[in-house]
Amino acid sequence: MKNKQYVIGLDIGTTSAKVVLFNYLGNAISEHEIEYPLSHPSPGWVEQNPDEIERAAVKAIHTVVQQSQIETEEIAAVGISAAMHSLICLDKNNNPLSPSITWADCRSVEQTEQLQQGKGIEIYLKTGTPIHPMSPLSKLIWMKENHYEPYLKAKKFVSIKEYLLLKWFGICGADYGIASASGLLNMHTLDWDEEALELAGISREQLFQPVPPTETYQELRGEIAQQMGIRNDLPFVIGSSDGPLANLGIGAISDGDIAITIGTSGAIRQMVSTPQTDHHQETFCYAFTNDMYVIGGPTNNGGIVLRWLKETLGELEMVKALEDNQDPYELLTALAKKVKPGSEGLLFLPFLNGERAPHWNANAKGSYIGLTQSHKKEHLLRAGLEGVIFNIYQIGETLERLSGTSNRLLASGGFARSPLWLQILADIFGKEVYVPESHQSSAWGAAWTALYAVGEVDSFEEIKNFIPMRNSFIPNEKNHEIYKRLYTAYKELYPSLKSHFETLSKLQKN
């Protein structure tokens, strides 16, 4: 395979399929992204059409190969990354009986609360998956208790990645990362947990065998290969979930390396060699390989906060962007940059979609605290950006309790395209922030896993030498001191408001 020069990373995200063709040095040669919608058929339900996602992935691969103008014989393999916590019910012919139910779906709030009061901590300590409506375990319990017809008829329960592999190859496994995030995998044995299966009301025969991230599939179905524009013997490597692959793709795989990824949602993560959880249940712990685990915490509210601010406050900027062919987000962040760090004492709790880490409360609400007459639109914008990072920082405190002090911050995801947001990150953490050239770190992590699986590279660790880096962001000590004082107030707001969030949630549901 020494004539191979390229590798593809396929990243199946929450709202789009992203495909990147890399050379072996980690440079993105060609990339393409195709969005797909979320549907909300009932309050709290968040679903997608799995076939629409599959078509987007196929088309994105075809587009990247076509626009790169390379021969497919030069491509070594395709590695796959996917968002966590998706769930699809399949019939005996592997056809979907249900939509793909996403991590953002909150229909199982009641079942989650009951589980938390029962065996929740015990299950969490075995699986590493916090007890939350995002988890397929909670969703399956909801299906069981509500006699959900697709659940009653299902022969298999799969993630969106497994569904694509079934359509493309007719076979698949459940990679350790995606399986871990289901809440059904015992992270200590890397096998399905019998107690969790019993709670979900399903059998291990209804799930695919857990497999390492290097599991490889070939003999792509002819019509699919033709649609993708690739040869049908091109190896597809199962990879993992987007979390550990983002850490790998950014080089955050050694002790003290912290990866911060913010796209639609966000997360802060660290790689460790053994499972790490505690009874506080503030973080997740998911397997990547049998001796590499990722610990961290996800936030529901990352780039979606900036999108909400754009849609709520950015009407003028959207019009101007359309007229002048500009990016409305750049116009909004330029406005926010005019405000001093700390937004003149204005704080924002960024819980627009409830929250996962560190509170794991689907009823949490977004809140501006400290509003005065002197605050303008630009203050609201900057406080929104700061609030997202304050929440990431609070999760980071838990990581330090579990695994020690961090010494290197690496940033990836859509927010890494915003110099202002990256400077806020550096200033709040008080640490230098390193940024790779490509913000598609999950795709590069998937691609590197594929290279390792087919023998083109010797180890996962070797990737550190093949990550083109951009500039770094140095913390401003004066700004850091301002943020330290504000954070003292920020972290006390959630417990003070929690009971009111519950009251408001009941009113909103009614």
TrEMBL record:
Similarity annotation: Belongs to the FGGY kinase family.
Residues covered by the Carbohydrate kinase FGGY N-terminal domain: 6-249
Entry keywords, A to Z: Kinase, Transferase
Residue ranges annotated for the Carbohydrate kinase FGGY C-terminal domain, each copy included: 259-453
Gene3D superfamilies: 3.30.420.40
Taxonomy of the source species: Bacteria, Bacillati, Bacillota, Bacilli, Bacillales
Protein name: Gluconate kinase
Gene Ontology molecular-function annotations: kinase activity; phosphotransferase activity, alcohol group as acceptor
GO terms classed as biological process: carbohydrate metabolic process
Top-level taxon in the UniProt lineage: Bacteria
InterPro entries in the cross-refs: ATPase_NBD, Carb_kinase_FGGY, Carb_kinase_FGGY_CS, FGGY_C, FGGY_Carb_Kinase, FGGY_N
